[in-house]
Known about the structure:
By secondary structure, the chain is of the alpha/beta class. It is built from 9 helices and 12 strands. Strands 8-9-12-10-11 form a 5-stranded mixed β-sheet, sandwiched between helices. Strands 5-7-6 form a 3-stranded mixed β-sheet. Strands 1-2 form a two-stranded antiparallel sheet. Strand 10 and strand 11 form a beta hairpin.
Amino acid sequence: xxxxxxxxxxxxxxxxxxxxxxxxxxxxxxxVDMHCVEPLPVNIxxxxxxxxxxxLEKHGFHPHKYALSxxxxxxxxxxxxxxxxxxxxxxxxxxDPSKCDEVEMLTVDDFASRHLxxxxxxxxxxxxxxxxxxxxxxxxxxxxxxxxxxxFEYHHKWKADKLQDAANYLEDLGFMCYYLGKDKLxxxxxxxxxxxxxxxxxxxxxxxxxxxxxxxxxxxxxxWGTIYAPEYLS
Length: 234
């Protein structure tokens, strides 16, 4: 379904929306279909409560209680933490699972076959999994083939996985990957890789499908603008 300007004013003042888009009130401006996957019990309960209160499913927002990884199974997450906690990964309950809840674990491909329209493209796949981002990507091979853009975190919690392996994996699936900076991009795919990138410093990585010519052109333009900036040439 399409969201109208009137419906979108739930998130922004209608006047602000109308000032940004040359359309009339009530006209459709985009189609919304967003899926949020959260394994931590207290967080997903809060998200589902807010979704119901604000009637967000009418606007295409769908929360799901799952853990995601490279294989199906069961995972455990703490049951007695405050809402908004975001530092718990798949290993959070290894020491004392008695204080944790069991959560169904899927691959992204399993999730997609269960919940997504198989005929449509995925505009953005965003991953923040406390060091298990590459494991999730490994379980998303088929889904990534119809994804335009994917973004994930990279930092010190990447204990067993390497960023270069993730970049190579995504390149094999037709993506160009970049470190994301403030108004800057640093390509890490293929010949642009240097070992210093395996630094485990907190960062975000964005990868665009090479089939998305306009998106790729924009990102490549920003990349070349970054490396030819005066501060790098002096």
